[in-house]
Design goal:
By secondary structure, the chain is of the alpha/beta class. Helices cover 23% and strands 24% of the residues. The structure holds S-adenosylmethionine.
């Protein structure tokens, strides 16, 4: 449950019979909440009222244990929409980090989809797994978390191992130990609908993941700096297998609402990252020439 006090401070707890939630404003018995409808108001011993609601996924990801920095809900929402993460999609992701984006995508694709997430750091992979497990109550059968560097070849082996009949993508189909399951008849070598990269050097992975995404599929990169944005975009263009990339950022500004005092909040998260997406072209197709001539000096003084 998520308990919110009158000042808007939130606490997330797992209810247990006989359990107690302690704050500096007094204790609150879990039993007062167990069986009560969501949206109940409970009063701590010190008299403070708490509103009790199940945390939304946005609340959960912001409060969960972090290893690597997470993708914030505002950006996860953009990725779900503009990277077109649909029910049943086969998605390849790296790195899993703390598992925040994994949780959003697992929920969006549902049991008919398959998410293969690579994470090179075993400690972060363990955190991602624990966070996802906590949110879903168990590790979703449609998730394969691989500890190791992203590899399209290994990912394709995993996705082919999952067919509707064998869908439990449990640890037997990869799991956290990174073992790649044997191949089962699948849908060809280009088996992912979407690839999402959130890592320091996504340009190193563009050529590799291009072999794993279906024609018409989509590559989405989340990068924190303009230098990364430029480098990955030019890498995508130079590869030739993608249609012209699109890039943007999202600024989300909360509003203070109090009677006639309605104004933007003074504080906001001013910057998280940029997103860049590009659609995969069919093999053997040349990317059409860009409509606009590059700006003078955009590619260095000597460039044509
Ligand atoms: C910023 S974190 C990802 C956070 C994650 N998207 C989330 O929402 O919780 C970036 C992660 O990428 C991992 N990483 C970087 N390069 C990688 C690669 N080539 N293969 C697999 N993981 C990689 C890092 O270890 C790090 O944990």
């Amino acid at each position: 449950m998520q308990l919110t006090d009158p000042k808007g401070r939130m606490h997330q707890i797992v209810l247990q019979p006989g359990g107690t939630f302690h704050t500096h404003r007094g204790a609150l018995s879990h039993d007062d909440l167990i069986g009560a409808p969501e949206g109940s108001v409970v009063i701590a011993v010190g008299g403070t009222a708490y509103v009790a609601l199940r945390p939304l996924l946005a609340d959960f990801t912001l409060a969960m244990k972090r290893g690597a920095a997470i993708i914030y809900p505002k950006d996860a929402a953009q990725i779900l929409a503009y990277a077109d993460i649909f029910p049943g999609a086969r998605v390849l992701e790296a790195g899993a980090g703390s598992g925040a984006l994994s949780a959003w995508m697992l929920r969006a694709i549902g049991p008919g989809g398959h998410l293969v997430s690579f994470e090179r750091r075993p400690d972060f992979a363990a955190i991602a797994r624990a966070n996802v497990q906590k949110y879903f109550g168990e590790v979703p059968a449609w998730w394969t978390l691989v500890t190791g560097d992203l590899s399209a070849k290994a990912a394709l082996g995993l996705t082919r191992a999952v067919t509707p009949a064998t869908a439990p993508g449990d640890s037997g189909a990869g799991g956290e130990d990174g073992a790649v399951a044997g191949s089962v008849a699948g849908d060809g070598p280009e088996a992912f609908d979407r690839v999402i990269l959130d890592m320091l050097a996504p340009w190193d992975c563009v050529a590799d993941v291009a072999t794993a995404v279906i024609p018409g599929g989509l590559l989405c990169c989340y990068v924190a700096t303009t230098t990364q944005l430029s480098r990955v975009t030019e890498e995508i263009r130079a590869h030739g297998g993608f249609f012209e990339p699109a890039a943007w950022e999202t600024l989300m500004r909360g509003w203070h609402l109090d009677g006639l005092a309605v104004r933007p909040e003074h504080r906001m998260i001013g910057h998280t990252a940029f997103l860049v997406t590009a659609r995969r072209l069919a093999d053997g197709v040349a990317a059409p020439a860009r409509r606009r001539r590059p700006a003078k000096g955009a590619h260095g003084e000597d460039a044509e």
